[in-house]
Design brief:
Layout (H helix, E strand, L loop, with lengths): L12 E7 L4 E18 L6 E2 L13 E7 L8 H11 L4 E3 L2 E3 L4 E3 L14 H10 L17 E2 L9 E2 L2 E7 L5 E7 L5 E3 L5 E3 L1 E2 L6 E2 L1 H5 L4 H7 L14 E9 L2 H18 E2 L9 E11 L2 H21 L10 H10 L1
Parallel strand pairs: 4-7, 16-18
Antiparallel strand pairs: 1-2, 2-4, 2-18, 3-7, 5-6, 8-9, 10-11, 11-16, 12-13, 12-17, 14-15
Length: 335
């Protein structure tokens, strides 16, 4: 049975913990049998854990979980709870009498929505890993995507609610590619036709506008005064996170290439991307069951990432005064 999400890759499971009152949460991917891992970090403000060991020059070639979380750098503690849960199950690198789970992670900045004093911690990671399973899981404003927003060129008060989403594709040769994305970008979301799907809400008209059009317009001065790019205290921080998983068999060099290729899909749907205010990070996992060309898996992963970005926006619900795309469209129709 296929679920249309990342858990269609055999051995990949997902657990989600959401605090809707605090508007934050975490999303945990587990691979108890282990997988080859890679990563692509392209944003200018990443918040990550254990990404160095995923580089081809490092010896560890087995990953057992990925922890995605809200809470800014505080949320990196989620991975510790995932490790504890997996260790109790006997999962991890075998070193003497010990099992050491390898759990890289990354966070988004969501402290300015909901209760910024409540942050996901190790107990949340333990709970998410304990509940991790194959099958449907909460998307939209849930898990690490609970506090996700997009379109912040005028600051967080003019943002649009976003969230998380997951998709998969089975190729004719039995290779399965799945993605999970948490969309929390400073930039706009573009539709399939390249037009604006969601952007910053203009502080006067309330209408969604393109960041690039603002940059090129006479309102640039206003953008500098109000927008994230010019605020000296940097009060709007962002980051889009992704995981691409496959049952393909890849070397460590290839799985890092898979992460980089899949990362390209984000740039097709988010404009601008990889700014100094984004910490965009995509992890890659390969479970090694099927021989497959990495470039094909990467191309499919990029397409899925692009589509999942839009799904994360469309499935999001309004929270903490930040309107969703569906709410904004309903308001437009009433007008």
């Amino acid at each position: 049975m296929l679920y249309g999400n990342i858990t269609d890759v055999p051995g990949v499971r997902v657990g989600v913990v959401t605090d809707r009152e605090a508007v934050t949460g975490c999303t945990v991917v587990t691979i108890e049998s282990g997988a080859q891992g890679g990563v692509s970090v392209k944003g200018g403000a990443p918040g990550t854990r254990e990404t160095d060991l995923l580089q081809p020059s490092c010896r560890v070639e087995e990953v057992h979980g990925i922890a995605l979380s809200g809470g800014s750098a505080f949320g990196l503690d989620v991975a510790s709870g995932v490790m504890r849960c997996l260790e109790e199950k006997g999962v991890g690198l075998e070193i003497g009498s010990y099992r050491i789970p390898i759990v890289p992670g990354a966070i988004i900045f969501d402290l300015f929505i909901g209760d910024g004093g409540t942050r996901p911690d190790a107990s949340w990671g333990y709970k998410a890993a304990s509940a991790a399973a194959a099958g449907p899981f909460p998307e939209g404003s849930a898990g690490a995507g609970a506090g996700a927003t997009v379109g912040k060129v005028f600051g967080p008060e003019c943002a649009v609610k976003s969230g998380q989403a997951s998709l998969s594709c089975r190729l004719p040769d039995g290779v399965i590619v799945g993605v999970l994305v948490v969309v929390n970008a400073v930039g706009d979301i573009r539709g399939e036709d390249g037009g604006l799907l969601a952007g910053a809400r203009h502080p006067e008209s309330g209408l969604m506008v393109s960041a690039l059009e603002i940059f090129k317009s006479a309102e640039m001065k206003q953008s500098r005064e109000r927008g994230v790019f010019y605020r000296p205290n940097g009060e709007t921080l962002n980051t889009t996170l992704g995981v691409v998983a496959t049952n393909g068999k890849f070397s460590k060099v290839e799985v890092n290439r898979l992460a980089s290729l899949a990362h390209n899909g984000l740039a097709r749907a988010i404009v601008p991307l990889h700014t100094g205010w984004d910490g965009d990070t995509v992890f890659a996992l390969a479970t090694g069951e099927k021989e497959a060309p990495v470039d094909i898996a990467g191309a499919v992963g990029a397409e899925l990432m692009e589509k999942a970005v839009r799904e994360a926006l469309k499935k999001a619900a309004s929270l903490s005064g930040v309107p969703s795309l569906s709410e904004l469209r309903a308001d437009e129709n009433r007008d």
